[in-house]
Design a protein that fits this description.
This protein has 152 residues and is α/β, with parallel strands linked by helices. The chain has a single domain, classed as FhaA, phosphopeptide-binding domain (DUF3662) (hypothetical protein PF0899 fold), CATH 3.30.2320.60. It is built from 4 helices and 7 strands, in the order ααβββααββββ. The strands form 2 sheets. It has a 4-stranded mixed sheet with strand order 5-3-6-7, covered by helices on one side.
Length: 152
């Protein structure tokens, strides 16, 4: 058994760099996407054997200058983030209590963090028809913060 394990590790050491050269590198997921996924995982409510409900309303508070840069783009970012959340939920077997909404907002006051994500579970009838989620200070809200700020 020891000999097989040693041979397998040696083959992995030789083949991994080769595959890295032959295949294009995977795209690194953004921090916001990672935190949206983590919000789903951390705040999942198990209602039954095959029913796990995750937050469906996300508010991403950004620094004002970053918010201006993102809103200046032709393609809106919110639908892309909603698609990412839907795909991740489908992969994990999660379901939503209502429509998924992601809202990008400028941070109020003197924010020193890069961004802050608030999430909550909102029933289908509680999500406003405009697509704008309610304020993050509600009862069933969850918050994640990225505290470091570094400008590129």
């Amino acid at each position: 058994m020891y000999l097989l394990r040693t041979a397998e590790r040696a083959m992995e050491r030789w083949t991994t760099p080769l595959w890295g050269l032959l295949l294009p590198p995977k795209q690194r997921q953004g921090e916001v996407v990672a935190i949206l996924r983590r919000q789903c995982d951390d705040n999942a409510l198990i209602l039954g054997r095959r029913r796990v409900v995750v937050p469906n309303v996300f508010v991403v508070e950004l620094l004002p200058e970053i918010h201006r840069q993102l809103t200046a783009h032709v393609v809106p970012l919110e639908p892309c983030l909603v698609t990412v959340v839907h795909r991740y939920a489908a992969e994990q077997g999660y379901s939503f209590a209502g429509r998924v909404a992601v809202d990008l907002r400028p941070a109020t006051g003197e924010a020193t963090v890069r961004f802050r994500v608030h999430s909550r579970i909102a029933p289908a009838h509680a999500t406003p028809p405009s697509g704008r989620p309610a304020a993050p200070g509600t009862d069933n809200a969850f918050t994640a913060t990225v505290a470091s700020f570094q400008t590129p």
